Amino acid sequence: MSSFPWLTTIGVIPLVGALVISVLPKGSAKLARPVALGFSVLALIVGILAATQFKTSGHNPQFQLAEVHEWIPQIGVSYALGVDGIALSLILMSLVLVPVSLLAAWHDVPEPGRRQQGYYALMLVLETTIVGVFASTDVFLFYIFFEAMLIPVFFLIGSFGGGPRARYAALKFLLYSLAGSLLMLVAVIALYQQGPGGSHGFLVGNLTGLHMSQDTERWLFVGFFIAFAIKAPMWPVHTWLPDAASEAKPATAVLLVGVLDKVGTFGMIRFCLQLFPNASKWATPVIIVLAVISILYAAMVAIGQKDMMRVIAYGSVSHFGFIVLGIFAMTATSQSGADLYMINHGFTTAALFLFAGFLIARNRSRNYPDYGGWQRVTPLLSGFFLLACLSGLALPGLNSFVSEFLVVAGTFQRHKVAAGFAVFAVILSALYMLLLFQRLYTGPKPAGKEHVRDLGVREKVVAGVLAVFIIGLGVYPKPALDVLRPAVTQTLQHVGVHDPAPTHGAAVDGSSK
Amino acid sequence: MQTLATSVPGLSALATSGDAGVAHNATGVASVGWLIIALPLLGAAILLIGGRRTDKFGPYLAVALSWAAFVVGLLLIIQVHGLNSGDRAFHKHLFSWIPTGGFNLDFGLLMDPLSLAFVMLITFVGSLILVYSLGYMAHDPDRRKFFAYMNLFIASMLTLVLADSYLGLFVGWEGVGLASYLLIGFWNYNPEFASAANKAFFSNRVGDFGFLLAIFFMFSAFGRVDFAGVDAAVPGTGKGTLIGIGLFLLLAACGKSAQAPLQAWLGDAMAGPTPVSALIHAATMVTAGVYLIVRSHVIFDATPDARLAVCIVGAFTLMFGAIVGCAKDDLKKALAASTMSQIGYMVLAAGLGPVGYVFAIFHLLTHGFFKAGLFLGSGSVMHAMNDTINMRRFGGLWWIMKVTWVTFGLGFLAIIGFPGLSGFWSKDKIIEMAFVGSGWRPWVFGLTALIAAGITAFYMTRLFIMTFHSNPRWEKPEFDPHEAPMTMKVPMIVLALGSAFLGLILGPTNIITNWLEPVVGRQEGHAVLSAPVLMILTFVLMVAGIWWAWRLYWVEVPVTPPVGTPLTRLARRDLGQDDFNEAAFQRPGLHLTRALVFADNRGVDGAVGGLAAFIGGTAERLRRLQNGFVRSYALTMLVGVVAILGVLLVVQ
User: Fold this and answer.
1) Dihedral of alpha carbons B304, B310, B316, B322, sign
2) Which of A442, A476, A484, A491 is most worth mutating to test chain B (most B CB atoms within 10 A of its CB)?
3) Structural domain contains residue B600
4) Helix count (H) and strand count (E) of chain B?
5) Which of A75, A386, A437, B187 lies in the 20 to 30 Å Cα band around A392?
6) Are residues B386 and B349 in the same domain?
7) CB-CB contact of B156 with B175 (8 Å)
């Protein structure tokens, strides 16, 4: 079974689904949604099977489930897929979030027809590119998926977003992304020239540990990093995200913020740290400062928003700051936290956006002033929403806490001041999350809403699945950490850094607990 | 009792070090000690997940599971009591929690005399209050949720005291914060109550900020955050690190235990249903800060400077709360101020170090009984008076509500330290220990504690008279006061018995000191004034306080409060705590947030600059760009890629 092309299969399934949906004959047009859901669930099942083939103990190559084929050997491009623990967990997270989002988006385009088929086909195409971007072990192939992702997202926001500024937001998203991509393209090509060349010259493995001049390495690093920083997004190139997320449908926002943006932080680990270790260390002070600014700045701006989708979006920017901080603090603890945060943030953001979407579907407004007292109208939705908010403010026992704690604890080992500033987010996140909850759900019961129904079965399934992950990964994060641990060790080996020893650890016997 | 006799160290200055040694692997009941947490947690889960189906039996299930946790705790304490005093600590490893290549922590339970004392307090008082709630919340439509949250609270509080590491403790710590938030906001259809809930959570988070930094310091200094590991590493650690850890732990304690400067939330927290005020905001959760300091005694033993800060916070808050308590007309808010003040006593005692740890916990236990009793009594009064809480509308209720009057009266006598009752044994000990030492400290801390005892007697007598005596300030058709139902009376009676006798049982018999000594250590101290002199002084001040309040309020209490002196007016406004917070934090914070939002919409977006200009300002141009943009982009890309590939081929 080890030679079975698991990753290709996972990636192709949604693509086939998208094709099936787009060629559905008129008479069976109403099958578009069930077909989309079916294919995404099938991809998830295959994904779980693939994960059982993944080994976490013993000596393994960096990439497992690997497939390498020549593609355009003249220029060194291969069709090469493979995953380490980080990529695998991100793929699995995405495979869960797509069917959940599809289910939540059931009534986004209610009338069967071309438009509905287009919407769900685009979501599936997006899923394919997501799998591709995380699974690529060829730099050029990664770049192709990195660009290809933009197209379905652009249309999902611009054509299906529905808000008055949807087109503006879609264009802004595209331009920001392109600006970064073009820089990265230059860097990708220049990187190839530094490498051994040949028919597999773009393989990550062949580009790791190159000897470059200091300047070259730094320029290449910058080229990649800016693209990833925009994608992540980091302050000050974050402004496209609140617009895009608030103008998109909630399900699109989930895939955009919860999944696509992870490509940025994933790329920092896979490419910036692994391919340019010295430049990464060189850039660390600046990036740590930017990450801390992202954390605090976005949290404060989130407090001042009136649009609930924008609150969530800014909260995400703050959380991405934590992820970047953890990556560049470069300790085993902080990177474990950052990697785990990427997974946790996916579920937390999905819960926040989708539950907000459930509420918006009932009251047709994204703005605070139109709400109040909804706990008395939809108590169950209120409970789930609060759970999502608590996850967003990193309450212990819920998923985000473990990752946020690890990021800052690991950062503190090396950068006490930066970590000290980052901890202020503990207070700020409580403010923006609980003020959001207060404004939407508390207060006297609104008049004229007696006919509004609480969550239906479909919505309960969505909420239930997300709640299981939010609580499960909070109480027992070990399975995820076990998958991530070898990848973290590998990244740190590539960069060549060691954890600082405890300053007063001599008195302790040193045995691991 | 033989073991007790042998371990009393006479009058020697240094008694025990307080190192309980290594905790044994759990056997017997201790090996299922996790049930103590799991049972109430199960209750919360069933009630929350089961939804309306559990409306009928849910509350009873919650009460039963809470009592079940008490029974397990009791069996455990019986098992432990049979062992030698040095062997009374059990450790139970539960599961691998956060295994990373760097930070590595397992979840486990530490069952030692200190945590078991808390287990008893939490499960016994908690279960009694749940029984009371069956009556108190009988007519609330959301009754099921109330019991679910209460069980969640009990489970979290038990996690807090049973965890074997600082991070495990922190899980319980924020868990009780969540339960507190949910229950303060239980009636959050009232916007003020929703704000009160948020205020409590935010203040606690400021404390949690400190807690996290303390844990980070521990991890970077020691590489471990479990109690055993930290305690072992403290000797030989630099002063600066220890002071840092100590002060951040103190900040954490201030948030949770409503100590200055994070005390402002407790008064507002009285928005929650009264059983919540009794259990969470009087008997248990708010004392968690004291637990944290005493649990960290190895750190505080090593840093007298951090301990001094603890003493200052405790002394300041105990006086602050006492002054505020004198001015409040809201019965529950007056009791809340009193709680703040009493916890100030405990924090002061904890700050005194080995002479005080035991008495901090002792007072915490007796206070848990009498303050819970006082709150349940005030709930009974509210119940009888259509939820009125303004004491200026009470008066003369003693004849109508005899059980409430007697039980409340015992709590009242206990808290003011009436000789023989619980508070007398625990609080007087703290006052005595505050006079231990040399230089200015015993005089400042001792006199503060002593004078506040007199003020306590004044405000508690005022509160008692205004509620139960003096002239009735209510009329029949509007109010029809009546005694509470049996479910409410029985818990009040039990707690009143505790208020009366718990101190006598635990104090003069040395049971409490011998029980806790192996964990926290103990040192005999010599007060600068002799014990009998202090006892007499305390008694005189107490009588003076009672007399003064009797003189002012016995005959008549006006329904509209008099204007009062500037100090009274300031105390009614909680000595300006909210004004201070608003001026210092809220308003600047609001301006900063607004400025940032403005900057983010205009500045940052604009500064990204060329790109934004490229997008252009007008919708018109956008639309034009939009048409076929992707197509032209794709084309450009294609051309570009082909060109670059071509170049590469040539180069090769």
Assistant:
1) negative
2) A442
3) no
4) 29, 5
5) B187
6) yes
7) yes
The domain locations on chain A are 6-499
Are residues B272 and B322 located together in one domain of the fold?
no
- DSSP H helices, A304-331, are 308-329
- In chain B, residues with a C-beta closer than 8 Å to the C-beta of A71 are none
Q: Is residue B276 domain-shared with residue B347, that is, in the same domain?
A: no
Return the bridge partners of A81, or none: A67, A136
- Where chain A has pLDDT below 70, the residues are 1-2, 505-513
Burial per residue of B82-91, b for 16 or more beta-carbon CB atoms within 10 angstroms, e otherwise: eeebeebbbb
Question: Hey, is the C-beta of A167 within 8 angstroms of any chain B C-beta?
Answer: yes
Nearest to A131 by CA among A323, A22, A257, A259: A259
B442 and B359 share one domain: yes
Residue A174, both tokens:
């595209």
C-alpha distances (whole Å) from B463 to each of B77, B330, B552, B566 are 37, 9, 12, 21
Chain B residues near residue A499 by CB distance under 8 angstroms: 102
Q: Are residues B272 and B398 in the same domain?
A: no
| B403 and B541 assigned to the same domain | yes
Of the partner residues A336, A445, A501, the one whose CB lies closest to the CB of residue B101: A336
**What's chain A's length in residues?**
513
Q: Is the dihedral of CA A109, A346, A461, A401 positive or negative?
A: negative
Q: Which amino acid is at B491?
A: P
Q: Which residues of A touch B629 (CB under 8 A)?
A: 171, 174
Which pLDDT belongs to residue B637?
A: 55
Asked whether residue B480 is domain-assigned, the answer is: yes
Residues of chain B with pLDDT below 70 are 1-21, 603-652
Residues B62, B189 within the same domain? yes
* Residues in a beta bridge with A64: A83
Amino acid identity of residue A201, one-letter, is: G
Count of domains observed in chain B: 2
Do B178 and B316 belong together in one domain?
no
Q: Does residue B619 form part of some domain?
A: no
Cis upstream peptide for B508 (omega within 30°): no
Query: What's the domain range around B332?
Result: 311-553
DSSP for A320-383 reads: HHHHHHHHHH--HHHHHHHHHHHHHHHHHHHHHHHHHHHHHHHHS--BGGG---GGGT-HHHHH
Judged on CB neighbours under 10 Å (0-12, 13-18, 19+), B433 is buried
DSSP designation for A136: B
Select from B553, B569, B585 the last residue of a domain.
Answer: B553
Q: What is the pLDDT of residue B13?
A: 34
Q: Which two tokens stand for residue B255?
A: 């948030």
Block residue for tokens 């099942």: A45
pLDDT for res B643: 52
Q: Is residue B260 situated within a structural domain?
A: no
Is any Cβ of chain A less than 8 angstroms from the Cβ of B105? Answer: yes
Q: Do A396 and B170 make contact, defined as CB atoms within 8 angstroms?
A: yes
Q: Whose CA is closest to A229, among A189, A190, A261? A: A261
Scan residues 229-268 of A and list those with Cβ closer than 8 Å to B.
235-239
pTM of the predicted model as reported, rounded to 2 decimal places: 0.91
Separation of alpha carbons A384 and A467, rounded Å? 8
HEC-encoded secondary structure of B304-362: HHHHHHHHHHHHHHHHHHHHHHHHCCEHHHHHHHHHHHHHHHHHHHHHCHHHCHHHHHH
User: Which residues partner with B283 through β-bridges?
Assistant: none
CB atoms within 10 A of CB B617: 9
**Secondary structure string (H, E, C) spanning B149-193:** HHHHHHHHHHHHHHECEHHHHHHHHHHHHHHHHHHHCCCCCCHHH
DSSP H or E segment with residue B99? strand B90-99
Identity (one letter) of the amino acid at A339? D
B635 touching chain A per CB within 8 A: no
Say which residue the tokens 């956060």 belong to: B98
